Write the structure tokens for this entry.
Amino acid sequence: MDTQKVDLFMMINGKYFKAEHLNYIREKLLGIDETKWNRIMALDFKDPNSIMLVSLIGPGALGVDRFLIGETGTGVAKLLTCGGLGIWTIIDWFIIMDLTRDKNMEKLQAYL
Amino acid sequence: MSRNKLYLVLILLITAGYCWLGWSLTQTTHNINFTPCPIKNITGIACPSCGSTRSVSQIIQGNFADAFMLNPFGYIIALAMLIGPIWLLFDLISKKDTLHRGYHKFEQTLKIKWIAIVLILLTLANWAWNIYKGL
């Protein structure tokens, strides 16, 4: 893909990924076929900040934060246990942003 | 989620679950004032799964109808706590990943739209019932 398009992608979507992955994504995107551009631009990435907000307020204790990023299995576990007796809820406040970035990376990885 | 990470999380969850259940079973005088649920602590209103510990302990004592009336979620938890450790041990001993694959299939099933909608509605209905019962 040409540099201009890759830079555009990085500018729009850079905030959805971990900093240490950005270089890898850039290099991979430069190497892939032009035809994948439309599909990659149409990917729906989750914003770590809004997921963090959901996790902090009420729904986080019901596992809604995990349902939103596609971690349905652990989401159900969190819902059934009152947010892991309240402990899991607090742990998730700290790890949910990186978890969201990992999930976004997983989504993009399918096209790289 | 990778196999080993999933199994680690499950081991932690199941151990914590049994510790919690064991501790609450030893409380002979029912201390209603203590709840670990963050939603109930902050808002004073029961969450969809409030009362499931009481429900599981009713199942252990054989009062199945009482358990259902308290919170039907207790049955799901009791089932998971019964099957989970056995399945986990089977996989760990035989070095297979049947539980991991089962977990992924379960996640995919939950993402089917009509199943998700039905389950969300059931959860909301259970929540309304919990608030009505004043758990």
